[in-house]
Amino acid sequence: MSKFWAVIPAGGRGLRFGSQVPKQYMTVAGMAVLDHVLHAFLKFHAFETIVVPVPSEDSRFHDLTASTDDRIVAIVGGQERADSVYAGLEWIVAQGADQQDWVFVHDAARPLITQNELHALRDAIDAPACPGAVLGVPAADTLKRVDQIGRCPEESDSCIAETLDRTGLWHAMTPQVFRLGGLMEALVRARTSGFVVTDEAQAMEAEGSLPWLIRGRRSNIKLTYPEDLELIEALLTAREERSA
């Protein structure tokens, strides 16, 4: 039977967040954001190892409460997200993993992942025909394409160029789950062709794969902007109060 592994790239510098502390290490509901993520993955009890690629100069990872768990390994990541993910995959291969093993890739700054969502992904990839699965939610708001250069007046940094049809549009989240060998090949091909991918599904799509979209929860948000921290704090606190 195929084994399950996890890669949680934690090399983000949080430029959009605007903090000197990388956003994955911001404290929320009593723990670092990344600590919440790691505890959720440990609770799932399915992974051989949870691999966390971090920058070589990282000095915060080993302060996390979850970092002492034997199922978690920190390695040196790469310059870009895809490089860090690939470094994690190489580490997994070095442990003797099979090319058909499944790898869950998750954002280090997405601390609200639930056990139900993890189980939904596992159920999806149990289907023989599943090429891989991505957690996501349908787009609910009206979508606008912004014109930042051409037609906007000088007084505006950006203006609406057009309204997009949101039919069939989803917000991709993580985890994203793919076979070890297939994902490695897709990332290598993207790198050699100069194609910068923003998530693992995009690399697989370029290979002609059609990953399955699995409905997740809208609460599974990623910490990107300062205002996200307040919402994540409220959601995590409410969750802890319900489980108390």
Could you characterize the architecture of this molecule?
It is a single chain. With 244 residues, the protein is an alpha/beta fold. It has one domain: Alpha-Beta Complex (Spore Coat Polysaccharide Biosynthesis Protein SpsA, Chain A). The chain is built from 6 helices and 11 strands. It has helices at residues 33-44, 81-94, 115-125, 180-192, 200-206, 226-243, and strands at residues 4-7, 27-28, 31-32, 47-54, 72-76, 102-105, 133-138, 143-147, 159-164, 170-179, 212-215. The strands form 3 sheets. The chain has a 7-stranded mixed beta sheet, with helices on both faces. A two-stranded antiparallel ribbon has the order 2-3. Helix 4 crosses helix 5. The chain is globular and about 55 Å long. It starts with a strand and ends with a helix. The model has no long low-confidence stretch (mean pLDDT 93).
CATH superfamily: Spore Coat Polysaccharide Biosynthesis Protein SpsA, Chain A
- Per CATH, the architecture is Alpha-Beta Complex
Structural class: alpha/beta
From the N-terminal CA to the C-terminal CA, the straight-line distance is 36 Å
Radius of gyration: 18 Å
Mean pLDDT: 93
Tally of distinct domains: 1
Q: What is the count of DSSP helices, taking H or I runs of 4+ residues?
A: 6
**CATH structural class:** Alpha Beta
Instruction: Give the percentage of residues in beta strands.
Output: 15-25%
The stretches of 5 or more residues where confidence is low (pLDDT under 50) are: none
How many strand units?
11
CATH topology: Spore Coat Polysaccharide Biosynthesis Protein SpsA, Chain A
What's the SSE pattern? EEEHEEHEHEEEEHHEH
Helix content: 25-40%
Largest β-sheet summary = 7 strands, mixed
Strand order of the largest sheet: 5-4-1-6-10-7-11
Tell the overall outline. globular
